[in-house]
What does this fold into?
Amino acid sequence: MDFSRYRGNHPNRTARPARPGRTGLSAMLLLGLAIAPAARADNPGYDRPGLGFTPAVLDAGEMTIEQGLPSWSQDRSAGVGSTQYSADSLLRLGLGGALELQLGDSLYNHLRQSGAGIHADSVGRGDSNLALKFVLPSPRPSFSWGLLGSVEFTDGSRAFRNSRRQYLMGLSASQQLDARSSIGTYLEDVRAGGRDSYTAVINHSQALGESLSLYVEAAWQREAGSVSGTLGGGGLAWQATPRLQLDAGFRRRLSGTLPAWWAGLGISMFLGH
It folds into this structure.
């Protein structure tokens, strides 16, 4: 998630370039595909791709589905190489006013580990999470900011389950520079078992045309323990139709002990009411 989400015209929002259980979310995806032709064609903006979230909420009763297709990450530590594929799903529902409910899951994960006498393959779903987003009052139309709080449960498959519940609080802000570009920041604190992990992100987005936008981002992360470092990356978001966005992005470790590579594809659909 980041601040570069391409967005078309939508009532009461400033235009700028652009996480239930697995059964319920899959059913919603199928339902959304079935009703999409009758949905309103306004694009409210999406929470993917990249790090963070867009500081805007859906109107009451509006929904989006945002799906990884999937993402890929790779790392090597102590002579053991790890490659993981993950398909993250996010359903967003506008509650009215400045509030939005989010339901997320990682329905498919595949982890391969090899080296130093280890050869393992694990497949399963990740933990689900529940989030609430709140958009803060803005002093000017070109600036937007918001808060997101979430809880991630320990209900995933054994290989992909957190040992404790995780509680996240994030703050995102975006400043429109002109009609085609914007900058954004994202700050995050994740607390689990009395320990905190932190992320700080800055990015820039640029519209390349009426339906295509480019973003670049840089991040610093410190996880509980000894894992920390910096990342750099970027990607594209293509507004294929007023209701459908396709995206691609990557991140590369610049320093420290974070995973070496991450890359992903995704699709986002606005379902209207």
About this structure: The radius of gyration is 18 Å.
